[in-house]
Automatic annotation (TrEMBL):
It comes from the Bacteria. GO terms for cellular component: cytoplasm. This is DUF3105 domain-containing protein. The chain crosses the membrane at residues 12-34, 60-80. InterPro entries: DUF3105 (IPR021454). It holds the Pfam family DUF3105. It comes from Paenibacillus sedimenti. The keyword Protein biosynthesis does not apply.
Amino acid sequence: MDQTMMQQGPGLISILLYIGIGIFVLAIVGYVLAVRTNKANTSRLKKAEKQVLQKKYKRNLMISHVLLTLAVLLTGTSLIQQSSDKYSIEKLNFNAPIQVTTDKDYGRGHSEMPLLYEMKIPTSGTHSPHDLKFGFYTEKPSTEMLVHNLEHGDIIIHYHPDASAELLDKLRYITNFKKAGAGVLAVPNPVVPSDQEVVVTAWTKTMQLQKYDDASVGTFIYQHIDKGPEQIPPEIRRGGGTM
């Protein structure tokens, strides 16, 4: 399953957008006709004929106002819906067969001090009291903060610092997905095994992939996002942490 298929939006939204644009064009035509009617030479017309033209002008103007309002509502609604649906977590429900390791739970205490972990890419344990914003990172944040993100149900994709441009583009895209108060981070990590392209983690969960593929990563995210031991509502945890 490729990224193009993941990004396809519902046809209904596109239809609403096209209808909105069409109505907008009709509104503009109506305004043009109204202006022409208003500017018509009425010096030789009788009073009754002038009144007819004036009524026609007002009618065209009113219809144009209504059409413009409808166009704005339809277009705005479709664009907002398209933006929200583009990164709907349901798009990641590929139900692909994946191999996930359940790791030992090393606890979830907090410490401001640098820490040593049993695992090279830890999925639990004592960690920093600070967590990170969701998104794509070009420099590796501290492991202590990354573990805190896992505690809140975030997904972290670890990639080689010299990853290909194609992979980086895919990672930038996938980090836009969120569910409730949890999101996705992609971070460079030199300890990713040389025979693996990425290591994807959740709280006490690890999946290694020799080759990144959308279906496997999407399935992992769909199954494990927002499953950390400390879940925070989205209205409080907007976009992740404060660092």
